[in-house]
Amino acid sequence: SEILLKNGAKVALLDVAAATGNSLKESLDEQYGPDRTLFITCDVQSQQQFNAAVQKVVETFGQLDIFCNNAGIFNESDWEKTVSINLMGVIRGTYMALEHMSKLSGGQGGVIINIASLAGLGPFPSAPVYTA
Predict the structure, then answer these.
(1) Is 95 a catalytic residue?
(2) C-alpha closest to that of 83 among 124, 125, 44
(3) Most buried of the four, 4, 12, 21, 83, by CB within 10 Å?
(4) Whether 99 contacts 76, CB under 8 Å
(5) Residue among 66, 2, 54 nearest 31 (CA)
(6) pTM for this structure?
(7) What digits encode the pLDDT tens for the residues 111-131?
(8) Which of 44, 6, 12, 9 is nearest to 25 (CA)?
């Protein structure tokens, strides 16, 4: 986020952790100004929350140029939640970003970045869901 802000970008932060997100926004606002950042509490498991958050970003900043899917958890005991966030959240985010950025639907183009763990590159028998 800071590299993007240092280079003139506007940055939206989405997270379920409201206190942490608001604190980060305040810190970034001190350095880059409050009009360059936006924090929205959002659970990527909820299509409705995710759609509303992305729509708010577009309304606030005008368009999406870069979209980073970075939400993830490590929780083998609640594997359905892990899949919902780590896999389905990426799929939801990618499709929403494409709706706004695709030149085929009137967008300006852009970049989608999907963050993943290096744990998926090798055997990790104690964490089969996380590494899937």
Answers:
(1) no
(2) 44
(3) 12
(4) no
(5) 2
(6) 0.92
(7) 999 999 999 888 899 999 998
(8) 12
